[in-house]
Design goal:
The complex is a heterodimer. By secondary structure, chain A is an all-beta fold. Chain A has no helices and 9 strands. By secondary structure, chain B is an all-beta fold. Classes of the chains: A mainly beta, B mainly beta.
């Protein structure tokens, strides 16, 4: 069963911010929100994760709504190299835990 | 350089043959995972292991087997019982603490002829 809902695709202009939405209305209290991306024929790359608070690192920002039912990944200045499939996943790693990857959202950055 | 290695990158086998895919990590992670990816699809979990000498079935374990004799290694065998083995196989590892992210290897593309 899919725990997250993402639109299949979106695009943005190079240099602009890319805002990738994700719905996770059935998230439980101790589940994290993770974002990964996968460039064609490579292994997925971890981007960021969070539990309740907004998070920022050198790659992106993660905004989680107060009710935790949705989140947005923000790439502040998208480049052509950011073109990839982005996966939003809820769950947690730890003893006997696992993450479930859906189909993700394909982000196309145009020149 | 710390990381996860998978070999080989491309693998070809004849139908009916078993094949073992290698996954090694030097990140000192306790947990390791195997995923399968088909074209245009997300990742599906085959097996995972949280500790040496222990592993659990994922969502699509039929036709696959694993072992975890060493912390660094988690090989996956695709047996002849797997009806559609051609796919992209990805290995990952993580610390066991709750919330830690998974790190992925580069993947092995298996083609069964």
């Amino acid at each position: 069963d899919a725990k997250t809902t993402q639109p299949p695709s979106m695009d943005c202009a190079e240099g602009r911010a890319a805002n990738l939405p994700c719905n996770h209305s059935t998230i439980s209290g101790n589940e994290y929100v993770y974002w990964y991306r996968q460039i064609h024929s490579q292994g997925p790359q971890y981007i960021i994760h969070g539990l309740k608070n907004n998070e920022t690192n050198e790659m992106a920002s993660l905004i989680i709504t107060e009710d935790r039912k949705s989140s947005t990944l923000i790439l502040p200045h998208a480049t052509l190299r950011d073109t990839a499939v982005y996966y939003c996943i809820v769950g947690y790693t730890g003893a006997n835990s696992k993450l479930t990857f859906g189909k993700g959202i394909t982000l196309s950055v145009r020149p | 350089d710390g990381g996860i290695t998978q070999s080989p990158k491309y693998l070809f086998r004849k139908e009916g043959q078993n094949v073992t895919l290698s996954c090694e990590q030097n990140l000192n992670h306790d947990a390791m995972y195997w995923y399968r990816q088909d074209p245009g699809q997300g990742l599906r979990l085959i097996y995972y292991s949280q500790i040496v000498n222990d592993f659990q079935k994922g969502d699509i374990a039929e036709g696959y087997s694993v072992s975890r004799e060493k912390k660094e290694s988690f090989p996956l065998t695709v047996t002849s019982a797997q009806k559609n083995p051609t796919a992209f196989y990805l290995c990952a590892s993580s610390n066991r603490e709750i919330g830690n992210e998974q790190f992925f290897g580069p993947g092995t593309r298996l083609t069964v002829l």
